[in-house]
Amino acid sequence: MCYDDNARPPIPDGERGTAQGDDVVLNSADGTRFMAYFARPEKPGKGQVIIYPDVRGLHQFYKELALRFAEVGISAIAIDYFGRTAGISSRDESFEFMPHVQQVKLDTFFQDVQAGLNYLRENADAQGATFPVGFCMGGALSLQSATRSEFGFKGVIAFYAGLKRAFGGGATALEQADKIVYPVLGLFGGADQGIPVSDVRELEAKLQQKGIEEKILVYEGAPHSFFDRRASDYAEASSDAWRQMLSFIASYS
């Protein structure tokens, strides 16, 4: 599990405005209803994000992360993965997520992404550049999304992406790296026990070989899920991760 119920996203440095967030239910192309959370800034700036959560799906950490983005002027929608298998229900710590994780397939996930993008673009700044931001499983899915030109992203952001995680028996994010078409910002912990730095460097090398603009950062000594307000030992890594994300979004918006 990436984040428990007590985890909260760090607060970005600098000036913040106000934001409003709401639970919404979206409809995928195959008729599936699934949960999402939309956060709208009082004064929109450039860029908007679609947030891919960790293995637990849409829980409180990601709703608050959407609000943190909106407070700095970036509209955000966080989506749930499990509408087809778990319906619309709570994703608190009592949710047994793994049977549902094992049923996630890329083709239906991409349908949900498109539904999320449609809602975001209809209810936020339709002209804004859009970026997926994924964590753990969501980081892997962010890289998988980077192979799909039809989404019209300007770049993708992946936190501690499971580079060798496959969905529905398909290829892993590392195996798909030569098909990525958008700039990539990758943020990893140097002490992450599940993601060897050698895998991260292989991803970096593949992107460079293809000529994809990339920035891959490994925070020395930081573990998986270091981006957490409670993790005071990694507060500087979290602050820098915010700076990197906002700079990346500004650069491509």
Automatic annotation (TrEMBL):
InterPro entries: AB_hydrolase_fold, Dienelactn_hydro, Dienelactone_hydrolase-like. SUPFAM superfamilies: alpha/beta-Hydrolases. Residues 1-21 are annotated as: Disordered. Pfam families: DLH. Residues 34-252 form the Dienelactone hydrolase domain. PANTHER family: ALPHA_BETA-HYDROLASES SUPERFAMILY PROTEIN (PTHR46623:SF6), CARBOXYMETHYLENEBUTENOLIDASE-RELATED (PTHR46623). This is Carboxymethylenebutenolidase. It comes from Ktedonobacter robiniae.
